[in-house]
Amino acid sequence: MLGHQDASTTLRHYAGLFPDTFDDIAGRMDIAIKRVLTPDTDDDSE
Length: 46
Description:
The chain is mainly alpha-helical. 59% of the residues lie in helices and 0% in strands. The chain starts with 6 loop residues before the first helix and ends in a 9-residue tail after the last helix.
């Protein structure tokens, strides 16, 4: 078996290697979620 037994083990070992990367990813995910959940106000049907 390759890898760790569970995700929490992996995060405990490697999360500190790229702290800024995780913050960037979280911010990008927030933006993407807001885009999906925000209704499109550009109505070109006229």
